[in-house]
Amino acid sequence: MSNALLDIHALRQTFPRADGGELLVLDGIELQLIEGQIVGLLGRTGSGKSTLLRSIAGLMPASAGSVTYLGQPVLGPAPGIAMVFQSFALFPWLTVLENVQLGLEALGLPEAEIRKRALAAIDLIGLDGYESAYPRELSGGMRQRVGFARALVVHPNILLMDEPFSALDVLTAETLRTDLIELWGDGKLPIKGIIIVTHNIEEAVLMCDRILLFSSNPGRIIREIAVDLKQPRNRLDPRFRDLVEKIYVAMTARTPTPPKIGGAAGTVATSIDTRLPRVSANLLSGVLETLAGEYSGKADLPVFAEHLEDDELFPMADALQMLHLAEIEGGDIKITDIGKQYVDAGTDDRKKIFQRQLLAYVPLAAHIRRVLQERSNHVAPKSRFFDELEDHMSTEDAEETLRSVTAWARYAEAFAYDDDSQTFSLEDPT
Amino acid sequence: MRLNVPISVRGSFFTRWDILAILLILGLLVFLGEASRHLLQPLSELQRQPVSLDPRNLPEYAARTTLRMLLAMVLSLIFTFTYATLAAKSKRAERLLIPLLDILQSVPILGFISLTVVFFMALAPGRVLGAEYAAIFAIFTSQAWNMAFSFYQSLRTVPGELVEASRNFGLSPWMKFWRLDVPFAMPQLIWNMMVSMSGSWFFVVASEAISAGNTTITLPGVGSYIALAIEQRDLAAVGYAILTMLIVILIYDQVLFRPLIAWADRFRFEQEPGVLPPESWVLDVMRRSRLIDRMTEPFASSWRRLLVAGWWKEVAPAKRERQPRHGWITFQWAVVVIALTALALWQVVSFVLQDISAADVLTVFTRGLATFSRIVVLIALASVIWVPIGVWVGTRRHVANFVQPVAQFLAAFPANLLFPIAVSAIVALKLNPNIWLSPLMILGTQWYILFNVVAGAAAIPAELRAAGVNFRVRGLLWWRRIALPAVLPYYVTGAITASGGSWNASIVAEVASWGNEHLQAYGLGAYIAQQTEAGDFHRIVLGIAVMSLFVVVINRVFWRPLYSYAERKFRIG
């Protein structure tokens, strides 16, 4: 394609693992950014979206495959590709103006030019009057405006955005989003294409011309969805709702896995090395109660998502499915019979049900308990399981997975963990 | 780098801030000229004009001492920016440099002086400059290590997104260093500079009267003044010296550190709510004076140009983070390091063994144990005294604001100044010097325990204290469940510094004199002091090596595990 700003071909990213092997994060990524488009990268945590963004920005070289920007391979930070960060990444010791000027100074432009362009960018993004303020004096929304101004001032061809609105409250995010789309639609932004990473489905449908859905572990593009609604888009437009629903269905659809013994269809097959979502037992109870009460056991996912934070829905859905407390099908979340029993039970019985589900469907929990039972003193060091997990996942994921299983096991009273001695044991403190 | 927006309207050219500013600058120039006038004179000049106890000389002595400390500070900063940066940026260098720094921190500097002076005298033979080098180097060694450590630790904790942002916007490594790394490290670095400056007073006294073999060179300064006053049993002179020190420390605080702290406040990454930003009148003068603005603008703008200078503009290509590989290069590097270590070890051992017997080594170790037991008792005593006081002070902000600067002054106070009282008392009351000289060792270092405990107690969240009140947690239970756990990580930090410093101080404190009265305690410090006096380099090296060994082993076996435990278990937030 002649007007492709960016061309990614067969991109693969791996991270080194503790045992010397490699962990596959992104695989077989094909992506073209065409002038005038906003492309959304949508996926859950662990799908490598941010890694992809960093590969495009030249912050991380490709393990295999290629990233080509305007016909040139991207081997390091390329001028013309600017980034907006989730946590703003402003320099706290520089004023708004100085933060915005930073990229221009690095270009070695004359001082007068730097000032002129910086002030123009500040004007464009609505930061007039804040030039001499320090980031800490600004609200989150204003800070992210500085982030935008800093990226726009270098007149990049491509603007990369890494969940730019997720650290903001809902209303602030909405305002900033609307402003940005308006500026983009009016052709006032000195950029030719945008790539935005998000896990907010509605945000993606609001902003993007194309949405790429990612699977997790490793991240692969599973689906591409074109959004041909006219801007400004209306959330209540039935076609908008249809798209959102379609994406929910696509993102919760399971890639078929060979059924395990005793595993029912439409459920999640897990093994010892499955990454466990970080969802508290409290939140699980809350969700089940709401689902059973307010929605009589079955709810539309996009509607139900309103109860949760952006990044909570999918881990929650995973956890509920994994424990067979709820099922997800065709964009609906439905409570199972056991889920209903759980909701109706009292505290102690709830724990018993949870323990049964945990030991039956989370192999890691069952594994730890078995090891503890086999040992004469019923104690085992954390490192024993940690090393096992580390052979299959990154150190952070292993840490996270152990923490999740510990939290669930504590609630279920399946086994105990002592952080001082870093050991698991069967005995609860008496 | 200030904004050039003309904030004030053009009025009279001179404001009162300008006048103050001019005075400050003129004073600085006169001081620098006066203090450096004597440097190039031949050594004989020192003998012709020996240090005198006339208090009228004290301003000049103070100026020269101050200049030495400042020069040493500049050297320490240069060392910090290079050594720590190298360690933080290169994995391979890190593996060698950080343990090395750790050891350097543990080596008793006071024992060093007599070893280095010969080298420096050779650099500028026959001139005062050589002795000045040696003195400045001695002061440098008391300042540099903790600054380098703090900078290294800051560099390793620079937030990842800011690093990515710098790279994304094409900042060269040079520009990133000055725009991101240094500002991020600044608050911690300045705090360490203050601690270093306080600590180095102790060494000023030792480094200005330098003995090189048979000759003793006395550089004019507050330190040599104090040494002479002690030698001549002149109590009034000791008083003048204390007064001078007090004034100098005050000036440092007001003119150097307070402005630095107030200025560096903007570099703090996280702002705790409710804490007032530090203020400094000197900084206000500098900021409000238009004249200074005009004078510094050319420097500021050439600095800006230097930051973006073309020849530094190379943007580093993207690097993959890799697990350390046991490749060929790493292997070669390991071989080089091992070879160097072996060479150094062989050097030291063969040097020491030239005329040292096993009995000598045994003596040194038993003396080491004697000093060790003193330090254990002293740290325990100091903890029992200062932890409750520190908690009491730290939980009352108005008291803390008053106590912190006082404690800082006391930390700077060289133990030598108390020798007159200690020695006279011990002689008059016929006390056992083995016991009663000991408190001198911890005199200067116990304050680190107090500082840190105060800081820790002040950091207990108000809600946590309110919860304590609400549940009527009082008395012993309050100490056991709230106060002590909350300050433990801070206390350990302070105690590590205090115990390391006490080892160092033992070289001065186990041997005390007041005129003709010489008292000595049995210990490793006294041993090193004796051998220094005797000019026996082999035994000095042996003593220093064993003392370093003690400090390193205690740190590794006791303090570090305790610290990581406290950090993991009790760090709030």
Please, could you describe this protein's structure?
The complex is a heterodimer of chains A (430) and B (573). The termini of chain A are far apart. Chain A contains 15 helices and 16 strands. In chain A, 40% of the residues lie in helices and 20% in strands. Chain A folds into two domains: 4-250, Rossmann fold (3-Layer(aba) Sandwich); 281-425, FokI Restriction Endonuclease, Chain A, domain 1 (Alpha-Beta Complex). In chain A, strand 15 (416-418) and strand 16 form a beta hairpin. Chain A is of the alpha/beta class. The relative contact order of chain A is 0.10. Chain A has a six-stranded mixed sheet with strand order 6-7-8-3-9-10, sandwiched between helices. In chain A, strands 2-1-4-5 form a four-stranded antiparallel sheet, covered by helices on one side. In chain A, strands 11-13-12 form a three-stranded antiparallel sheet. By secondary structure, chain B is mainly α. Chain B folds into two domains: 12-311, Orthogonal Bundle (MetI-like fold); 357-573, MetI-like fold (Orthogonal Bundle), CATH 1.10.3720. In chain B, 75% of the residues lie in helices and 3% in strands. Chain B has helices spanning 16-36, 44-48, 58-89, 91-106, 109-123, 128-156, 160-168, 173-207, 222-231, 235-264, 281-288, 290-307, 328-353, 358-394, 397-412, 419-428, 433-436, 439-443, 446-458, 462-470, 475-509, 524-534, 537-570, and strands at 209-212, 215-218, 511-514, 517-520. Chain B has a two-stranded antiparallel ribbon with strand order 1-2. In chain B, helix 9 runs antiparallel to helix 10 (235-264) and helix 15 (397-412) runs antiparallel to helix 19 (446-458). Chains A and B meet through strand 6 and helix 2 of A and helix 7, helix 8 and helix 12 of B.
